[in-house]
Specification:
Layout (H helix, E strand, L loop, with lengths): L9 H11 L3 E5 L3 H13 L11 H9 L7 H27 L4 E5 L8 H12 L1 H6 L2
Parallel strand pairs: 1-2
Helix pairs in contact: 1-4, 2-4
Length: about 140
Amino acid sequence: MYNQIPLWLRPQFAEWITREGIAVIHLVREATLETAASEIAAQTATDGGTMHTHNGSVAEQTMDDQPVRLEPSQWTQLVKEAESMTGWWHRFLSHAAGNHGGYHRLTYESLISAGRDDTISAALRFLNPEIGRAHV
């Protein structure tokens, strides 16, 4: 989640990424509408706002919660905000890490698609370029 790095700490975070040559894999969910719905559901959930869980009873409770219902204009605003935030982080991370070739964008959806093996291979080559050279 993007809120894990507070706004006031982001300049130092970017400096650290650049100075240390940190490789960044930016894991993005392309289904922006589902992202917005998940966030709203977490805010209104009876379990205190759990976004992810390994607890089966919590997952079952979350699935039983009422669907998120908003006006179309509210959905539009939420999607625009989510896409704006994702775009901001893309620019921020690619600038901070891209100077040393350390930025790779990866989508959740690509990890469950027919091309997932290629997606995972590309991420592994990004993390360890020697993997790609060994097979050439």
